[in-house]
Design a protein that fits this description.
Radius of gyration: 17 Å
Distance between the termini: 23 Å
Number of helices: 9
Strand content: 5-15%
Number of domains: 2
Helix content: 40-55%
Number of strands: 4
Strand order of the largest sheet: 1-2
Order of helices and strands: HEHEHHHEEHHHH
Largest sheet: 2 strands, parallel
Length: 165
């Protein structure tokens, strides 16, 4: 039971990161595991392909959830979203890809998923003013004038596929 594991770790006062390795048969338990406070969940069938990346993200302070099960979680926290959306480690330098830098794209994605400027700034470890600058710059580059237009752009770009099983 996820609540027992999490409770045991709290009583031991450990800061150890926990990775739940779930079998395909336990996929329906993923929301319960996440809600119990275990935010690193890896499918057993994905270990060969995802384990190294998961460890890198978790060691960097992020959360890791296998892409195939991410959509099962009702309200993931921003760190889980960032890890699922980000294809490189959180501390990687901005790289140009298309019209947007990597950081600009991440700000726009998190904004499209409904996170506030303050939440995004905290996750990216930058000021709220910096997030606003990224958002303004990307909105101008892509001619997106509202959150709705950003969400529509995200739909066309496949950003929300992370939510699909």
């Amino acid at each position: 039971d996820a609540h027992i594991v999490r409770g045991s770790l709290r009583s031991a006062r450990t800061d150890a990161a926990v990775i739940c390795v779930a079998t395909d048969e336990l996929i329906d338990k993923v929301p319960e595991i996440y809600e119990a406070g275990i935010h690193n969940i890896l499918l057993e069938s994905d270990i060969a392909m995802e384990f190294s990346r998961a460890i890198t993200i978790i060691a960097g302070g992020g959360n890791y959830i296998s892409r195939r099960i991410f959509g099962l979680i009702r309200e993931p926290n921003i760190r889980s979203f960032y890890s699922a959306l980000n294809t490189t480690p959180a501390n990687a330098k901005d790289m140009e890809s298309g019209p947007l830098s990597h950081r600009e794209e991440m700000v726009l994605k998190l904004f499209a998923f409904g996170f506030s400027t303050k939440e995004i700034a905290s996750e990216l470890k930058v000021s709220t003013k910096t997030v606003e600058t990224y958002k303004a710059r990307t909105s101008e580059k892509l001619d997106l004038r509202s959150r709705v237009s950003i969400v529509k752009y995200g739909c066309r770009s496949g950003w929300f596929s992370v939510l699909l099983n």
